[in-house]
Amino acid sequence: MRILVIEDELKLAKALREGLEAEQYQVSLAHTGEEGFYIAQTESFDLLILDVMLPRRSGLEILANMRRLGFTIPVLMLTARDAIEDRVRGLDNGADDYLVKPFAFPELLARVRALSRRATYDAAEKLRIADLELDVIRRSVTRGGQILDLTAREFELLEYLVRHHDQVVSREMLTRDVWKEAGRHTPLDNVIDVHVARLRRKVDDPFDEKLVHTVRGVGFVVRQEQDRDQG
Ligand code: CA
Q1: Which residue in 90, 97, 112, 166 has a CA-CA distance of 20 to 30 Å to 74?
Q2: What is the arithmetic mean of pLDDT over 169-176?
């Protein structure tokens, strides 16, 4: 497991490297944004620990650029105690998690472990139910060997439903986990229903067996029909 740490405070960077190496991680250090951005593009890493307050090129800028270039590497951001705006912007720009300085090293380790578990879990996966197959890396979907043309949002929605197959997924869950708008005051129900309807047209309409089901008043469930209703 290779970790790139971009941190300009030399003492902290050194402590992070020593601590992580003691846990058998391979660690590379960069002390400026430019250097970090360069290393991240030229070598491959499993996790990026990124300080927000960097000289010249901020961590947020680096993160936004990387995501724009299609880097999917998990990113743990380090932010200052009172910079709530940085945290929000960081998460908006594609950070996976953040830690507020100063932090206890065991807490950092716990976050690193959580993010690396997520990375391997995601990387390993092709999701299948019935004759539907999702390739989470390529973000492509086939059913019965036929390629389905989904938008990014439709893919995320389908991936979420398939990961939760045989469980009812509520619109609140979709708002929080797929649309990532947990704090909304006005419900997204109509938007969600429109997307589910479109998803169904692509995933279910051309096929006999229906996989996406509505549970009235509760939400949706992806499951194989056990007893096909002939009526
Ligand atoms: Ca700094």
Answers
A1: 166
A2: 89
